[in-house]
Write a structure and sequence with these properties.
The chain is of the alpha/beta class. The protein contains 13 helices and nine strands. The strands form two sheets. It has a seven-stranded mixed β-sheet. A two-stranded antiparallel sheet has the order 6-7. A hairpin with a 4-residue loop joins strand 6 and strand 7. It is globular, with a radius of gyration of 20 Å. It starts with a helix and ends in a 10-residue tail after the last helix.
Length: 344
């Protein structure tokens, strides 16, 4: 069984248990999704308070009110996109939002997990959207799609699961018409979440500041002594596809596309630090809100002053007619920091 087959089986199991709504999704606005994920010990973006202060404020500015996808929609989806290809759609919440809002006329959506694809298709049928969001279960690379057929390719938090990542970028480039757009929201940090030493050092000091009441790890059901740092072997055992080639996402993006919008929103510290301990925080309690906001501020300032790189970003990029040559090590190291631009 290949790594992709193993990963698909694991994702089928997770979707069957109903534990994988789409992160950074407009579906977070649904009270049902919020209630379902209220005790989630892993994903900080699924908690409305943290999502607002750690993600939405960075993408929207001000108080972080509104949908972080709206600025992208205003700039790039007016007039609406005629035809889009969505890859790694999961439960297709984002694709549904694109259709309901009228941003995209039709979407061909592909998802490897048969369980997720079937669930999404049933929901889309009930919503009367099955003709506009055409859900497919299977490998998009083997679907026999015609090149230059799409105006937009959408990937929502799935590129970091691609085993054949360079082949996938070449495929996305080939599927787009001249001037076509690629939009994604991704983890772009180290492969298999092997966090940088400077990131671990800051998290260790933050963890030392926490009262014992905040340090019970709900995943392993014991008091934690430091934030979780999984080895490569442990990550592969959990999910061989998790961040398998994440460090190549930005270099390949800038090779095949011209980035016209980049919304970095961190996650470098927030995601690993809060893993396991999120249920210990009462986000209705002003004291816990203060602690959470101060922890968020530590990450924001660490990234701003380039003490740590950025690990999560949203990008809208336009297809290049001529693919750039591979980047050198210095450019690869620099592009994870906000404000980097490719050499002329």
């Amino acid at each position: 069984m290949t790594g992709q087959d193993t990963a698909k089986a694991r994702w089928n199991e997770r979707y069957a248990k109903g534990k994988t709504p789409c992160a950074q999704s407009p579906a977070l606005e649904s009270p049902g999704i919020q209630k379902q994920m209220a005790g989630d010990p892993v994903d900080y973006t699924q908690h409305p308070f943290l999502y607002k202060h750690a993600v939405a404020k960075r993408l929207l500015g001000g108080e972080g009110e509104g949908n972080p996808s709206d600025p992208v929609a205003v700039q790039f989806f007016n007039p609406p996109i005629p035809k889009a290809l969505a890859i790694g759609s999961g439960l297709a919440f984002f694709e549904e939002w694109l259709a309901v809002c009228g941003h995209v006329e039709t979407i061909d959506a592909f998802e490897l997990s048969e369980v997720a694809a079937a669930s999404a298709k049933a929901r889309l049928v009930n919503a009367g959207l099955a003709e506009r969001v055409r859900m497919n279960a299977g490998d998009v690379l083997k679907a026999g799609l015609a090149p230059s057929s799409y105006d937009l390719v959408v990937v929502q938090a799935a590129i970091h699961h691609f085993f054949e990542i360079e082949e996938m970028f070449a495929f996305m480039h080939a599927m787009l018409k001249p001037g076509g757009l690629l939009f994604f929201d991704e983890y772009v940090g180290p492969d298999h979440m092997q966090y940088e030493p400077e990131v671990q050092a800051i998290m260790n000091e933050m963890d030392d500041c926490l009262d014992e009441r905040y340090r019970f790890d709900h995943i392993v059901q014991s008091q934690r002594t430091c934030p979780p740092y999984a080895t490569v072997e442990q990550m592969v055992e959990m999910d061989a596809s998790e961040g398998v080639h994440a460090s190549e996402i930005l270099p390949l993006t800038y090779r095949y596309f011209d980035v016209e919008y980049r919304g970095d929103y961190g996650g470098t510290i927030m995601r690993p630090f809060f893993t396991g301990i999120l249920p210990n925080f009462d986000f209705e309690d002003p004291r816990d809100q203060t602690i959470a906001r101060l922890l968020t501020l530590i990450e924001e300032l660490s990234i701003k002053h380039r003490l740590v790189p950025n690990h999560h970003t949203r990008i809208m990029a336009r297809r290049r007619e001529t693919v750039r040559q591979p980047f050198g090590a210095a450019d690869k190291a620099a592009m994870v920091f906000s404000g980097w631009r490719p050499p002329a």
